[in-house]
Write a structure and sequence with these properties.
Distance between the termini: 21 Å
Oligomer: single chain
Number of helices: 12
Length: 281
């Protein structure tokens, strides 16, 4: 396996890893999603009872809100568990070992608390950036910077708002791309993982951006194709295809981050398959 970090190398090897382990990763995804599936089924089963309560004038707003919060937390935990488990499975494949379902789930559960806390911190940082960007944009739209409230100033304000908001978000996404693999492999802390990712991506961030941009564009095109197919074959089959495509890209994004982490360490630290084997032995 080549040791240079390159967009084509990362993508081709990621696809190879994913297709070699497609059954394992599919099972990992389904097993990891069991809690969320159970909650969905419970929610569907509760619809008749909710309708009866509404007809009797019983206010269920608090219960519904609490249920949505619980579902959101479980959904986030499910996503992070699957990402962590697939990352571990990818590393197992890279070092020439079979990615076993139990081992992947076990490692994912072991690092889940740190990954969850890191994700919360990441969300807070992104939220602050988005709020600041929208605030600056609102000032521009109000004409404080452009001096008028004409259509042209609104357009300029909107464009600058997008730039001020998206540019930092994309930059942070690139810099912190491999924070999950850093936790999975090195058991880095919930804060230290961001510094570790920053160190590894430094010098290769435009290439990392290229990987993420291609993944985004491909996902977008796939979504458009599924939408067109849905119009031809119906909503039910379309939704099934949409779920398959979504799960595929979720798994691919986890594999790409893990493969990218390997090549970034290989490029910066001479990290190889033997070193990867020692980490988990």
């Amino acid at each position: 396996m080549a040791q240079d970090f390159a967009v084509g190398t990362v993508i081709s090897n990621s696809l190879s890893v994913l297709f070699r382990n497609v059954v394992t990763f599919a099972v990992v995804t389904v097993v990891g999603a069991i809690p969320m599936i159970v909650l969905l089924l419970l929610g569907v089963a509760s619809f008749p009872m909710a309708g009866l309560a509404a007809r009797q004038g019983i206010d269920l707003t608090g219960g519904v809100t609490a249920g949505l919060v619980v579902f959101f937390i479980i959904a986030v935990l499910t996503y992070l568990l699957i990402q962590s488990a697939i990352s571990f499975g990818t590393f197992q494949d890279l070092r020439g070992e079979r990615a076993r379902i139990g081992d992947c789930i076990g490692r994912g559960l072991a690092v889940l608390p740190r990954v969850f806390l890191s994700s919360i911190l990441l969300f807070l940082v992104f939220a602050v950036i988005a709020i600041v960007g929208m605030f600056v944009g609102s000032l521009l739209l109000a004409g404080l910077f452009v001096g008028s409230t004409s259509i042209s100033s609104a357009v300029v304000g909107s464009l600058v708002t997008m730039l001020v908001t998206l540019a930092p978000l994309i930059t942070m996404a690139v810099i912190w791309w491999v924070f999950v693999p850093a936790i999975v492999v090195e058991r880095a802390g919930s804060i230290a993982c961001f510094g570790r990712s920053s160190t590894l991506t430094r010098g290769n961030r435009w290439r990392v951006f290229g990987v993420l941009a291609l993944l985004f564009v491909t996902n977008l095109i796939a979504g458009i194709v599924v939408g067109l197919i849905t119009r031809l074959v119906g909503v039910v089959i379309g939704e099934i295809l949409n779920a398959i495509v979504s799960l595929f890209f979720m798994a691919l994004s986890a594999v790409m981050a893990a493969v990218g982490y390997y090549y970034l360490r290989a490029d910066k630290e001479g990290f190889g398959v033997d070193d990867l084997a020692k980490v988990f032995d």
